[in-house]
Amino acid sequence: MKKYNFNAGPSILPDVVLEAAAKAIIDFDGTGLSLLSISHRTPEFDAVLAEAKSLFRELLNIPDNYQIYFVGGGASTQFFHIPANFLGKKAGYVHTGVWTKKAIKEAKFYGQVQIVASSEDKNFTYIPKNFEIPSDLDYLYICANNTIYGTEYKSDIDSPVPLIADMSSDILSRPVDVSKYAMIYGGAQKNLAPAGVSFVIIRDDMLQSVKRELPTMMNVNTHVENNSMFNTPPVFPIYVLRETLKWMKAEGGLEVIYARNQKKAALLYAEIDRNSLFRGTVAEEDRSLMNICFVMSEGNEELASEFMSFAKERGMVGIKGHRLVGGFRASCYNACPVESVEALVACMQEFEQLHK
Ligand SMILES: *Cc1c(COP(=O)(O)O)cnc(C)c1O
Predict the structure, then answer these.
(1) Which of 120, 161, 223, 348 fits a 20 to 30 Å CA distance from 142?
(2) Torsion of CA 155, 158, 159, 165, to 10 degrees
(3) 3-state helix, strand, coil in the chain (%, to 5)
């Protein structure tokens, strides 16, 4: 049976990328050796790294005064690397769910944390807006797309202090004005690569503003100065990331991908709103393009497990909502084709007919 992959992370990658990755495991770029069995300090891998960086720069329109590096440890390692490097006295955090909660916890090891705004009062179903940003903060931290709740910032906020954003689950899904951020980072396993590598995009001036002496691996300068190769980088995930970026470029670049993402989200949200058995869970203006959350409508709650089996029988994979939210979540990352969303919509319509 055909499978429609809506996994939240690690998640769907384009077929051509998987084919290239499989091939490289056997014969990496015609070297006659597996990608998994070569030194990272070879001209061949240098070329992969260089192309990954230059494609990232090109696709996201990253200005020249920003550096890009790749490092292991996942986004969760950045939760403490960021305050270790940049929190001198006080940092501001906008609290929008589990991923900011975890980041806030780590920041407190290094200094004061001011919660500048929060959507906890409504179980993180919206993005706080029009909040004031104190000018005495070392930085302001946001999570651009809240993977678990399905909320997303729809514009780049203006901040008087350096703005740092976790874009693990919406990187390269939509255009971003990089110049408004001091640092953008994320784990690559949602939209770009298999698990094992994080990307960091950091403005040059931040490299001079590290607040304390740090172990070498924790200092952002180490990774910039050593071109992501202070220690052995995650060779395979970086290779796959490069293949994903090549695919994106071949598809027509970020504008084309963004338009496709908007189309998929519009299709699914329209069905959630139309179908009498379902309802959306978050404020309409903050609905994520990537992680689309919904539940059974009032009075139909008991149909949830039946719908789960019904959808599974029709090939839907990974639509169970996060345990903290319940219901359903369809993650519609870049590589998720429009046909998958159409199949899910058809499945929801069929289920409604069955219960008329
Ligand atoms: C998945 C996710 C994380 C955690 O990433 P790890 O690489 O597993 O540490 C952090 N932030 C967001 C927004 C995520 O979606």
Answers:
(1) 223
(2) 20
(3) 40, 15, 40
List, for residues 160-192, the tens digit of each pLDDT value: 999 999 999 999 999 999 999 999 999 999 999
Calculate the average pLDDT of the chain.
Answer: 97
Residues 6+ apart with CB under 8 A from 342: 267
H or E element: which one contains 305?
helix 304-313
> Could you tell me if 55 and 193 are in contact, meaning their C-beta atoms sit under 8 angstroms apart?
no
What DSSP character marks residue 13? -
Give CA–CA dist 50/227, Å, rounded. Answer: 9
Atom of ligand 1 nearest to the CA of 145: 13
* Cβ of 280 less than 6 Å from ligand 1: no
Q: Is the CB of 99 under 6 A from ligand 1?
A: yes
Q: For residue 123, what are the CA distances in angstroms to 65, 120, 129, 175, 244? A: 38, 5, 16, 28, 34
Mean pLDDT of 311-334: 96
**Other CB atoms closer than 10 Å to residue 171's CB: what's the count?**
27
Torsion of CA 27, 29, 31, 36, to 10 degrees: -50
pLDDT at 103 over 90: yes
Dist. CA 36–CA 137, nearest whole Å: 44
